[in-house]
């Protein structure tokens, strides 16, 4: 009798538990099926008005058409992009808070300071929609016609080739040091406070080449010449200029325009977002807007972007440790 009563109770509680499970599961599935059903927030870790902010606003506006909801871009600048990255990492993974992650916040600062997130483990990387045309420029009347010419000059004249970047231990400075190490040459680094100062020094003959962001107007006016794109892939805007991979380098400027989310985002929502933002990239308004701000359109899916981030996180960690900069 007691045995039968016990079995009845167990069966009752099991049925209740299963009922609750399927109720919650069904609710979750229903929520994902209706997603999104309210406005969304896009966290931007840099100030309003800079090039990456303008690009994010373009893709967010275009994606609204395919998601059926407004997307509000919220700027959370500061601490080299880590304030915005932390806000994204700690947001609820419900699909209503997404964001962009900058290279410093992913690959540099986490090795040098304590940050409240892990760059690889605490995010869901949804897709890449663009890139940055960072490069190496020389004066238009320079004797150096190609980047290989610069390397050969440095080989024949140790420490005489001067290059300017926007600061000591900047990404561009570290990239050039890695190139020197690979080529077994010595160059002299001249740090400046920003890209405009670098180009002024270049045009004034104070450095032989500038490395980093460059003025498109100066290149188009043939006052400066672009000899290397610091990206992994060739630039559609400058197809005749080699990229890092073309010259055999297995490292590059790791800056990508991306759409990311907190870890734990349901797979159905990831697919929904990736599909919507991929379609947004084909919108004429987005394409024209990116052209106007000189930002290359470039697609990388979530799986490939995740691998890209993991690779560069390990690679730049090694670079920083070699320089004694990692904590």
Question: How would you describe what is shown here?
Answer:
This protein is α/β, with parallel strands linked by helices. The chain folds into two domains: 40-131 and 255-322, Bordetella uptake gene, domain 1 (D-Maltodextrin-Binding Protein, domain 2), CATH 3.40.190; 135-247, 3-Layer(aba) Sandwich (D-Maltodextrin-Binding Protein, domain 2), CATH 3.40.190.10. Helix content is 46%, strand content 17%. It is built from eleven helices and eleven strands. The strands form three sheets. The protein has a five-stranded mixed beta sheet with strand order 7-6-8-5-9, sandwiched between helices. It has a three-stranded parallel beta sheet with strand order 2-1-3. Helix 2 crosses helix 9, helix 2 (51-67) packs antiparallel against helix 10 (284-292) and helix 4 (103-112) runs parallel beside helix 11. It is globular and about 65 Å long. Mean pLDDT is 91; it is low at 20-25.
Assign the structural class, choosing from mainly alpha, mainly beta, alpha/beta, alpha+beta, or little secondary structure. alpha/beta
Put simply, the count of helices is: 11
> Number of folding domains?
2
Termini gap: 68 Å
Radius of gyration from the alpha-carbon trace, in angstroms? 24 Å
- Low-confidence regions: 20-25
| Oligomeric state of this protein | single chain
């Amino acid at each position: 009798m007691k045995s039968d009563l016990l079995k009845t109770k167990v069966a009752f509680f099991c049925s209740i538990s299963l009922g609750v499970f399927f109720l919650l599961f069904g609710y979750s599935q229903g929520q994902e099926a209706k997603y999104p059903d309210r406005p969304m927030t896009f966290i931007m870790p840099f100030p309003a008005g800079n090039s990456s902010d303008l690009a994010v606003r373009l893709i967010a506006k275009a994606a609204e058409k395919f998601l059926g909801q407004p997307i509000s871009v919220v700027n959370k600048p500061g601490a080299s992009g880590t304030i915005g990255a932390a806000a994204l990492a700690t947001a609820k993974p419900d699909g209503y808070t997404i964001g962009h992650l900058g290279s410093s916040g992913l690959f540099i600062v986490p090795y040098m300071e304590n940050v409240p997130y892990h760059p690889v483990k605490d995010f869901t990387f949804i897709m890449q929609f663009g890139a940055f045309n960072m490069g190496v420029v020389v004066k238009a009347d320079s004797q150096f016609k190609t980047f290989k010419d610069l390397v050969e000059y440095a080989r024949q004249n140790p420490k005489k080739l001067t290059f300017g970047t926007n600061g000591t231990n900047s990404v561009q400075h570290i990239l050039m040091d890695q190139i020197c190490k690979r080529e077994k040459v010595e160059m002299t680094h001249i740090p400046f406070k920003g890209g405009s100062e670098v180009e002024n020094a270049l045009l004034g003959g104070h450095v032989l080449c500038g490395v980093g962001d460059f003025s498109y107007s100066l290149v188009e006016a043939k006052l400066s010449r672009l000899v290397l794109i610091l990206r992994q892939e060739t630039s559609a805007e400058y197809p005749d200029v080699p990229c890092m991979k073309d010259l055999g380098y297995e490292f590059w400027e790791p800056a990508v325009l991306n759409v990311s989310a907190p870890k734990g985002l349901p797979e159905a929502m990831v697919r929904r977002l990736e599909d919507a933002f991929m379609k947004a990239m084909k919108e004429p308004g987005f394409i024209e807007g990116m052209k106007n701000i000189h930002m290359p359109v470039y697609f990388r899916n979530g799986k490939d972007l995740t691998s890209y981030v993991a690779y560069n996180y390990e690679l730049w960690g090694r670079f920083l440790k070699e320089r004694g900069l990692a904590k």
